[in-house]
Specification:
about 160 residues; alpha/beta; Rossmann fold; 6-stranded mixed beta sheet; 5 helices; about 30% helix; nucleotide-binding; Small_GTPase
Length: about 160
C-alpha cells in the first residue's frame, strides 16, 4: 500500500469542511481535521491521510509543522468569491517557504454547482495552476462523487510520481 500525507489549505469561507465531510468515512466523530481515505489506483491501494490546516487567514501563515512528511497540498478557493482566488498567490508564497520542493500541489475551486454566481473562470484558474506547477480542479460538495473525484486524481498523481 502506498500511503501519503495530504494537507488542505484555504480560507474558512471556501467550504473546506463540507468537502472533507463528504469523503469522511466515519461521520459520527466531530470535526473533520483528519480523514483517511483509500483509493484503488491501477490495482494499488493508495491511502491519503488528509489533514485540514488551521491557519492565520490574515497573514496566510502556515505552521511549518504541518509540512512534516507531507506529499501533497490542496489549496481551495471559492469560484463565487474572486478574493479567495486572488489570495492563492499568498497561500502559495507561504507554502513555498516551508513545503518540500517535490510536493504535489492542487488548486480546487469549490462551489462549482453555483455557475450563475461564478467570479473566477476556469481558464484563469488553469493558467494560475500551470504557472505554479499545480493541478487545477473544481469541486462541489453537493454533486455526488465530486469530492472523491479530486482526491482520486491526487492519489493517481501521487502513485505515478513515486
Amino acid at each position: 500500500m502506498s500511503s501519503h500525507k495530504v494537507i488542505v489549505i484555504g480560507e474558512s469561507s471556501v467550504g473546506k469542511n463540507e468537502i472533507l465531510w463528504k469523503i469522511k468515512a466515519d461521520k459520527t466523530n466531530g470535526p473533520v481535521d483528519y480523514t483517511p481515505k483509500t483509493y484503488d489506483v491501477d490495482g494499488t491501494p493508495v491511502c491519503l491521510h488528509i489533514y485540514d490546516t488551521v491557519v492565520d487567514e490574515r497573514t496566510f501563515k502556515i505552521s511549518p509543522s504541518y509540512f512534516q512528511g507531507v506529499r501533497a497540498a490542496v489549496v481551495m478557493y471559492d469560484i463565487t468569491d474572486k478574493k479567495t482566488f486572488d489570495n492563492l498567490t499568498c497561500w502559495f508564497k507561504s507554502i513555498k517557504q516551508s513545503a518540500p520542493q517535490d510536493m504535489i500541489l492542487m488548486i480546487a475551486g469549490t462551489k462549482s454547482h453555483m455557475m450563475g454566481q461564478r467570479q473566477v473562470f476556469k481558464d484563469k484558474a488553469e493558467n494560475f495552476a500551470e504557472e505554479n506547477g499545480a493541478i487545477s480542479a473544481e469541486v462541489s460538495a453537493t454533486k455526488k462523487g465530486d469530492t472523491d473525484r479530486i482526491f482520486r486524481e491526487l492519489a493517481v498523481n501521487l502513485l505515478h510520481t513515486l
